[in-house]
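Quiz preparation item.
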């Protein structure tokens, strides 16, 4: 299936403490279910998430334009068009992506989709447990912080 850029609108999210991001959900439009593929554009000062790592999902990032700052294991690195980053499932290297420049930056992010995953957020000491479409975010002591469905 061919997907033209003009056929897939970007979804804008403006979240407090995360900034403005535009996401094009390519895998959903293409009907792909075994991995997620998205083009994300971060506005200056935005970030994708809190530091995290997955027990069962691989993640791959490929920079399309601008300067993307990857924070990984407490270190930061500036990536540019053509650079990439990989985060294998089960490797406890917490990471997140941000835009610390004054221009937009865009990247392709691809991740496996598994039925069951645990995502760790070491800075907040929370864990996200996902089974199918249902998820629950737990505090460090095991108390439920939030629940929901995708």
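Solution:
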């Amino acid at each position: 299936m061919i997907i033209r850029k003009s056929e897939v609108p970007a979804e804008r999210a403006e979240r407090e403490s995360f900034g403005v991001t535009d996401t094009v959900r390519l895998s959903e439009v293409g009907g792909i279910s075994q991995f997620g593929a998205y083009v994300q554009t971060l506005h200056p000062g935005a970030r994708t998430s809190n530091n995290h790592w997955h027990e069962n999902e691989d993640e791959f990032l490929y920079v399309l334009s601008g300067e993307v700052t990857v924070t990984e294991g407490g270190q930061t690195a500036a990536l540019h068009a053509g650079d990439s980053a990989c985060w294998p499932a089960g490797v406890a290297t917490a990471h997140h992506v941000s835009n610390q420049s004054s221009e937009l930056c865009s990247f392709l992010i691809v991740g496996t989709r598994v039925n069951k995953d645990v995502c760790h957020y070491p800075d907040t000491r929370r864990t996200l447990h996902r089974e199918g479409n249902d998820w629950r975010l737990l505090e460090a002591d095991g108390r439920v912080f939030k629940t929901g469905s995708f």
